[in-house]
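Quarterly update from the structural biology core.
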Amino acid sequence: MRIATGGIIHETSTCVDAPTTMEQFEYDRGVIRGADILERFHGTNVCTGGFIEGAANNNFELVPLLRASAFPNGLVVRKDYDALKQEMLDRLRQAERDGGPVDGALLDLHGAMVVDGIDDGDGDVIAAFREYLGPDRPIVVTQDLHGNHTQARVADADALVGFDTFPHVDMADRGVEAAEIIARTVRGKIHPRMAIHQLPMFWSTPCQVTAHPPMDDVLRQVHKIEKRAGIICVTIATGFPWADVPEVGSSVMVLADDDEQLAQQTADELGKWIWQRRERWYSPPLTVRAGLQRGEKAGRYPIILADHTDNTGGGSPGDSTEVLQTFLDLKLLDALILYLVDHEVAVQAQQSGVGSRIPVRLGGKSSPVQGQPVQAEAEVMAVSDGAFAYDGPMFAGLTGSMGASAWIRIDGVNIVVVTAREQPFDMAFARSLGVDCANMKYIALKSAAHFRAAFEPIAGSIHNIDAAGIHTHDFSQLPYSKRTRDMFPVEIKPHQR
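Predicted structure, tokenized:
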């Protein structure tokens, strides 16, 4: 058995003006080709790593094509997307000429990619593979929890397998599951039939953390249903609200064995269960000072603020300044910002050297919505070229690069200034600069939840905040022209609290 694998992975924010180009896909080995895929991702906690493990477990040959991944940003440039897609298909044709027909495809996609002129980028990739492979060779796709899933994807793919965790610590596990599904399908042991139930709902980020209430209750329902006779797997998608596409929102997808009616009935059942409890998945926006006050009231340190409106992992610029300015105004000591994106200041710190004091104009350079630059004198504590290795559990086994970077201090506030827009998945990069996160009293992270996998063990308390930024969680303020439904909690209002 030969199974092709590849993917174009991107979470696209239409709120961000900056386009996503080929250069961004190619940054830090973001485009991997052919056999290099097997070497790069073997043993790593990403879906492709799971495909590799699953191929070995299920005794089939994995035929690697092309895997392209760019950090979340604005619309993917059409010609660059077309070039990546065409190369992936060309590599598939060549692989079949060299080794014979493949029996199906495992695709590593995200679920929220938007290309200039194509609202459903992921669906377009799946459709291209369906056209090439025809109706009989199965296509199984892994998808992020934050996909905006469409009827077209469900029609073209044999199975969509979504993450069960947020933070995403189960990516390799889902890859293994997808590999098992396609192996059993090709061998005729199962006949997957998929259905979707779309929900007119924006799911608040603080209510999505799967290890804690209320989201843990959703996953219990999912796993209970997966034990039923005839059910292969169940996927919850909480959606990605910052994409202006017709089918934006949450969804439930169910895969059943040779029973489309069972799949649809089960998806509808779970979808209605979620909708009836929609107030549980809603969290009103919280200001920076209110988050600090809640932390001080709890009295445990460090107080961690998740600056999710400037979450670079969703495509934000990473240079908003409200949290930094608030920390300075309150004269906080042992405070830390991870990370603030400002290439200009990072280079300035590197040129001045460790121990120097420099005048900075920090952050607030990408958009007026992100706040004004903070002007102050800063001490340079450490500098770095940005290279590091992830600790995990997310991205365990992979390396990364933050580009020109520095640790600077303004009064009692420490700031890790970077060039690459990357959220702090773990403490590895901060530690490479000499920053000990556990000894800080206040930590603000430009992330929504992924940091939790590494930072929760040291946290006194954690609070998601809605500082000034492009990716506000006041969903009524987001610009939409394409969505086709009234949504909770925008047009369909939550109860007053």
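DSSP finds 14 helices and 19 strands in the chain.
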